[in-house]
């Protein structure tokens, strides 16, 4: 979305533009504070006041889709394009909405058109990268994400403005749900255990992290389909076809509105190590996927601390956490497992996709500390990468 | 680490053994069961002893059945009330029966083109009371087609059927024969003799689309007949011996593939046995409640890319 005011505006026009931009900014702030209804109400008023401003109905469409009314959101965005056929943000929003559940065929024309209309804008390249990633065309996806970063270097980007929308994570609800779910699965013969951020929180703090956004679990990959099947019969559903990944699987608990990633573990036939995602996509060569490796997975059954029953738990969580987080006892609020995990095997194409797209996302959202932390880490993967050198340099200043 | 077998795997199914004394005694009136495709394979299991009454002598050409052990065929005879009955030999052999075909049935099959009597012969044949069959102490399983007087068969077999495990009767919803017993009549008899309706199967459907033109697609929705299955009531099942319950469960599983009912009957024998059955058939994951520790191994969760790499 453009952040420039119109040139050569008349003074009273400038005041109107400022009022309009302020109204839009307030709506965006409300949305980011998880007040979607409030944001939509403000935008509805603004749409009446400034009927010729496409950003307003574009945001209405985006937020409407975000609250689950996907068809209404799409209709709104389509309406914007009827009046403003070259409105790139609307094209990208529509592409993104279709891409989320994996409808690449519907997403493609919108993203393609946005790229044709704005080949020098970074956003369309990032969207095209996401599309190519979902298609499994990872070399092209990497190129597109890097092109987005190249163009971002040349663009004016507002910094130090954390704008990512994070719904409040209800720690007690999430922890209760985690233990109930682990006990349910154990009772049905599935070795599901708390993993990643959930295990880190439970081990370091004795509770899940308040800043978390979902719960994390692991299962033997051979039990994955059973686990998903049992979850789906007990209030969970798979979210957006797990965004195209065969591992981890993204589950959503509608009653509590809590998400859970379920990571499947296998044993590497060559090294004997336990492997998990990262991110695995069906049909990709092994080396293209993003793989985390651990020495062993050893579990023991324990009574659940809150509630009834028993659950499978990591026997030596400290060693497991060290493998992935390094010095896990020291909090690092900028740690992004998908980019900075210590036990990522190599710097695969999918790992590159995650690294570049997340740097771009945090940068675009004005979250400079996180963007620079990821960029610095990515540079350690390939210190000769001139693009990353420039990104780090730019973000540092 | 304990090995975990896949539910429903051949290995687990092989581990579930049906163990009962003696054979399941089956009486098949009309020879529909003995003439069926599955019959030779079922007899090879060595668990059935079958007597087939074959009023139309339909099995005469089935030389392959001569070598089947524990199978006896009684040609030109039907179960009934013990009095001679008439066999209506029809031009369309599929209509031959000891009940008189209705004129509309004959007309429908002949499509109005026949100039001869569609009933070729009316032959007297013997009917046998089920209760009078010597050497047959009881019947475990009775199979009746729809071309003989089923109510007479049931009424004259009350003693032999007192401990029956399963009764299968084909019933019409649109009669083809005079005095053909319909579902209501059969169900009423069953209800007064300790049985309850279980299910309809093998529905025979007729299309009501025109048959004298070529249709690009078709549909048949009009139910002509169905096979009905009757089981002892739960109250009666409680009083069956373990051996009889195992026989019934075996029948439900092996012949009818009604796994939930096979489980239900096994549960009267032993809930643990019933649970083993669920695991063996893949309905229940083999949870080891005593398992306290678990180490992930390559056998348990192998590398998904292993085949591609090799």
Provide the fold topology.
The complex is a heterodimer of chains A (about 400) and B (about 300).
Chain A: H1 11-32, H2 36-49, H3 55-66, H4 70-83, H5 88-99, H6 104-117, H7 122-134, H8 138-154, H9 171-187, E1 193-194, H10 196-204, E2 215-220, H11 224-232, E3 236-238, E4 249-253, E5 258-267, E6 274-279, E7 290-294, E8 298-303, E9 310-314, H12 317-325, H13 337-340, H14 349-364, H15 368-381, H16 386-396
Parallel strand pairs in A: 2-5
Antiparallel strand pairs in A: 1-2, 3-4, 4-5, 5-6, 6-7, 8-9
Helix pairs in contact in A: 1-2, 2-3, 3-4, 3-5, 4-5, 5-6, 5-7, 6-7, 7-8, 7-14, 8-14, 8-16, 10-12, 14-15, 15-16
Chain B: H1 10-15, E1 24-29, H2 39-44, E2 48-54, E3 71-75, E4 77-79, E5 85-90, H3 103-110, E6 119-128, E7 141-144, H4 150-155, E8 166-172, H5 183-191, E9 195-206, E10 222-232, H6 234-237, H7 242-254, H8 259-269, H9 271-280, E11 293-295, H10 306-309
Parallel strand pairs in B: 1-2, 1-7, 2-3, 4-6, 7-8
Antiparallel strand pairs in B: 5-6, 8-10, 9-10
Helix pairs in contact in B: 7-8, 8-9
Protein architecture, described:
Chain A has helices spanning about 10-30, 35-50, 55-65, 70-85, 90-100, 105-115, 120-135, 140-155, 170-185, 195-205, 225-230, 315-325, 335-340, 350-365, 370-380, 385-395; strands at about 195, 215-220, 235-240, 250-255, 260-265, 275-280, 290-295, 300-305, 310-315. With about 400 residues, chain A is α+β, with helices and mostly antiparallel strands. In chain A, helix 5 packs antiparallel against helix 6 (about 105-115). The radius of gyration of chain A is 22 Å and the shape is globular. The two termini of chain A are about 25 Å apart. The model of chain A is unreliable at about 1-10 (pLDDT under 50). By secondary structure, chain B is of the alpha/beta class. Chain B is built from ten helices and eleven strands. A seven-stranded mixed β-sheet of chain B has the order 3-2-1-7-8-10-9. In chain B, strands 4-6-5 form a three-stranded mixed β-sheet. In chain B, helix 7 (about 240-255) packs antiparallel against helix 8 and helix 8 (about 260-270) packs antiparallel against helix 9. The longest helix of chain B has 13 residues, at about 240-255. The interface of A and B includes residues 274, 275, 285 and 315 of A.
């Amino acid at each position: 979305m453009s952040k420039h005011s119109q040139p050569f505006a008349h003074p009273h026009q400038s005041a109107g533009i400022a009022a309009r931009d302020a109204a839009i900014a307030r709506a965006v702030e409300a949305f980011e504070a998880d007040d979607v209804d409030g944001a939509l109400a403000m935008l509805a008023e603004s749409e009446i006041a400034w009927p010729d401003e496409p950003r307003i109905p574009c945001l209405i469409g985006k937020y409407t889709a975000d609250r689950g009314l996907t068809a209404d959101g799409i209709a709104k965005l389509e309406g914007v394009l009827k009046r403003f056929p070259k409105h790139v943000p609307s094209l990208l929003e529509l592409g993104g909405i279709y891409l989320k559940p994996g409808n690449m065929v519907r997403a493609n024309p919108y993203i393609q058109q946005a790229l044709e209309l704005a080949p020098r804008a970074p956003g369309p390249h990032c969207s095209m990268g996401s599309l190519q990633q979902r298609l499994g065309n990872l070399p092209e996806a990497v190129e597109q994400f890097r092109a987005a970063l190249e163009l971002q270097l040349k663009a004016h980007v507002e910094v130090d403005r954390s704008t990512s929308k994070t719904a409040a994570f209800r720690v007690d609800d999430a922890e209760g749900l985690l233990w109930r779910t682990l006990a349910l699965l154990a009772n049905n013969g599935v070795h599901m255990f708390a993993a990643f951020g959930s295990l880190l929180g439970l081990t370091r703090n004795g509770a899940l992290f308040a800043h978390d956004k979902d719960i994390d679990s692991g299962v033997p990959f051979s039990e994955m389909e059973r686990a998903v099947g049992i979850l789906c019969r007990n209030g969970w559903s798979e979210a957006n076809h797990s965004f195209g990944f065969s591992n981890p699987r993204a589950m959503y608990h509608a009653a509590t509105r809590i998400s859970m990633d379920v990571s499947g573990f296998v044993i590497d036939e060559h090294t004997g190590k336990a492997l998990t995602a990262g991110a695995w996509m069906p049909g990709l060569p092994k080396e293209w996927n993003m793989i985390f490796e651990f020495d062993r997975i050893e579990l023991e059954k324990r009574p659940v601390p809150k509630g009834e029953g028993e659950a499978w738990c990591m026997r030596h969580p400290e060693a497991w956490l060290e493998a992935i987080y390094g010095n896990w006892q020291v909090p690092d609020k900028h740690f992004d497992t998908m980019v900075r995990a210590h036990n990522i095997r190599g710097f695969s194409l999918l790992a590159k996709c995650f690294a570049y797209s997340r740097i771009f996302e945090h940068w675009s959202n004005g979250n400079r500390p996180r963007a620079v932390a990821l960029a610095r880490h990515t540079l350690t993967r390939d210190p000769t990468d001139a693009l990353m050198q420039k990104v780090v340099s730019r973000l540092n200043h | 680490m304990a090995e975990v077998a896949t539910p429903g795997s051949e290995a687990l199914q092989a581990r579930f053994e049906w163990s009962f004394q003696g054979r399941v005694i089956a009486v098949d009136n009309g020879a529909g069961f003995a003439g069926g495709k599955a019959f030779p394979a079922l007899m090879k299991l060595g668990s059935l002893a079958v007597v087939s009454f074959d009023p139309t002598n339909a099995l005469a050409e089935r030389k392959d059945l001569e070598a089947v052990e524990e199978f006896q065929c009684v040609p030109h005879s039907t179960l009934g009330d013990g009095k001679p009955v008439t066999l209506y030999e029809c031009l369309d052999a599929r209509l031959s029966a000891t009940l008189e075909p209705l004129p509309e049935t004959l007309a429908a099959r002949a499509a109005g083109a026949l100039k001869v009597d569609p009933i070729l012969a009316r032959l007297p044949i013997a009917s046998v009371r089920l209760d009078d069959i010597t050497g047959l102490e009881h019947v475990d399983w009775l199979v009746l087609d729809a071309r003989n007087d089923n109510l007479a068969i049931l009424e004259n077999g009350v003693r032999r059927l007192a401990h029956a495990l399963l009764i299968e009767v084909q019933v019409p919803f649109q009669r083809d024969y005079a005095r053909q017993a319909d579902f209501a009549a059969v169900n009423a008899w069953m209800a007064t003799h300790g049985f309850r309706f279980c299910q309809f199967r093998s529905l025979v459907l007729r299309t009501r689309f025109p048959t004298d033109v070529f249709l690009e697609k078709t549909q048949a929705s009009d139910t002509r007949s169905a096979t009905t299955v009757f089981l002892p009531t739960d109250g009666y099942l409680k009083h069956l011996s373990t051996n009889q319950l195992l026989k019934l469960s075996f029948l439900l599983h092996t012949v009818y593939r009604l796994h939930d009912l096979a489980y239900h009957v096994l549960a009267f024998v032993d809930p643990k046995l019933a649970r083993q059955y669920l695991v063996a058939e893949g309905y229940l994951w083999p949870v080891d409640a005593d398992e306290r520790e678990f180490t992930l191994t390559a056998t348990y969760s192998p590398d998904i890319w292993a085949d591609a790499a090799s």
